[in-house]
Structures are given as C-alpha cells and as structure tokens.
From TrEMBL:
Gene source species: Collinsella tanakaei YIT 12063
Pfam family for this entry, one: Peptidase_M20
Key words of the record: Hydrolase, Metal-binding
Record GO terms (molecular function): hydrolase activity; metal ion binding
Protein name: Peptidase M20 dimerisation domain-containing protein
Length: 278
C-alpha cells in the first residue's frame, strides 16, 4: 500500500488526545490488516497474529506479529496513534484534518507526529506480507508492529505493551517518530515523580509555630536540581533538564503555612535530551 496515500487517510481520522482519541483509528488500522491477511494463503496466515489490549475504555493497543523461522529477536516497529489536540488557527486551505498536499508536503494534525511514520510502518508490514506471498514462506526474522495509545499524555499505552510482553529487552526496536531524516541510535529515558510536602498551619502573627511547605518545596527543588546537575554527563547527551510539570499550593494571606493538611505538590518530568552533533 502506498505510504503517502495511507498517511493522508490516517490524518483525516481525528485521534486527538485529549479529544476523539484512538478508537476510530485503531479500528481502521486493524481492518486494513485483517483485509490484507484475509487475502493470503492459510499456510502463511498461521504465522500471523493480531492482538489487542484495552488500555482504557475504547482505547486499545494493537499488535500485529509475523513469526520468523529463525532464532533472532524480532524487529519491532512501534508507533503511537494519538495526536495532540486539534488546536486553532488552521488555514482554510489546509484544514486541521484535511490531509492537504501542497508542493509535496502533507498538511494536517499529526502528519509529522506521527501518522507519517505510522503509515511507513504499516507499509513495511504490508511489504513483508507481499514478500511472504512471493516466497511462499515466513521471514527468517520475526516482525512486529505495535500501535499504542496515550503517547501524548501519560504513555500508558507503551507501558501496557511492555507489561503484556509485546516487546522485550532483546528485540530490535524502531520508533518511526520524526528525527529530521536522521537515524538515532539511542533514546532518552524518563523519570516522572511527585513530591508531596506537608507543613504546619500557623497564624501570620505567630509564624514561628508553623512550617512553610512552599519554602520547603523550594529548598527541595534546588537540592534535586543541584544533585542531578552533578551527575556525570554522557558524550552523546546534552545536560539533563528538570522541567517542573506543575506546582500546587493552597494559599491564605493570614497563614504562613500555605496548605492543610497537605502542603505543596509538584510534578516533575526528568528526561534526557539528545545532543546534536554538527
């Protein structure tokens, strides 16, 4: 199947998160795969499995695996089906879900991130099925296509895929996210954690009886930043950022302590950026 036309079809399906989410696009992809498999001889179909995991209600991961006859680990293409919200300000000439082609460029929500890559991965799957029909046998190395939900929010889809054993430590994994047409040989990790700091309520006239949770949080943030910045740096990675996802504290102008019974809460997302080499 032509990857270009397939990308257009995928862009026309609203899978925004939050928004319409992935139910419709997952059904569409699964139907495409099932239609292609139904045209193959039974001796080849037995080597193909199609699985789903419902991560959230009406939000399913999809796994299509072609077993290989060799002992080598599978080649795994992994893609997410959701996009960010549709947003505003789209031109009438290039509507949000219009999948408009202009000067050999495809316009629409998710064209780059990552329905173009998803279309390429699906095309690779169908090309392998064509090769199986041509040779009359399964490939030497197994192949899996994993389509996940919730990448644009909390990544629960890929976590569910790992928990289900769809991908392990030995597989060769290719993520078809856009990387400026350059192959990247590593991927940043992430640590997402929450701090909940409690304080003691006191009146502003007697601040010595209280403990300020906001001030304590500021001290904790500074300490964590300094500790992470002091860690050794890898030659291929830029310094680690520590973005603060959100901070919450109840305030009362007459209290030196800002929240009761809970103090302040902050949410951090620690990720490792790729260092670009010239």
């Amino acid at each position: 199947m032509n990857a270009w036309r397939l990308a257009q079809q995928l862009v026309r399906i609203d899978s925004s998160n939050p928004g319409a989410q992935e139910d419709t696009i997952e059904r569409y992809i699964k139907l495409l795969v099932e239609q292609r498999v139904s045209s193959m001889p039974a001796c080849l179909v037995k080597h193909i499995s199609i699985k789903e995991i419902e991560v959230f209600p009406a939000r399913r991961n999809l796994n299509v695996t072609i077993a290989g006859y060799g002992s080598a680990p599978n080649l795994v293409y992994i893609c997410h089906m959701d996009t960010v919200t549709l947003g505003e300000g789209w031109s009438t000439d290039t509507p949000t879900l219009g999948a408009t082609v202009r000067e050999n460029r495809l316009y629409g929500r998710g064209a780059c991130d990552m329905k173009g890559g998803l279309a390429c991965a699906l095309s690779a799957l169908f090309s392998l099925m064509d090769a199986m029909e041509h040779t009359g046998t399964q490939p030497e190395r197994g192949f899996s296509l994993i389509c996940t939900v919730d990448e644009e929010a909390n990544m629960r889809g890929v976590e569910a895929a790992i928990d289900a054993g769809w991908v392990g430590t030995d597989e060769w994994v290719l993520d078809t996210e856009p990387t400026d047409n350059q192959i990247q040989v590593a991927h940043k990790g992430r640590t997402w954690f929450e701090l909940d700091i409690k304080g003691v309520t006191a009146h502003a006239s007697q601040p010595w009886e209280g403990a300020d949770a906001v001030a304590a949080t500021a001290e904790a943030i500074s300490h964590i930043r300094r500790s992470i910045e002091a860690l050794p740096h890898h030659a291929d990675w830029a310094p680690r950022p520590l973005p603060l996802a959100w901070f919450k504290a109840d305030t009362n102008p007459t209290l030196s302590r800002m929240h009761a019974p809970r103090g302040s809460i902050c949410d951090w997302y620690l990720r490792q950026p790729r260092r670009r080499r010239k």
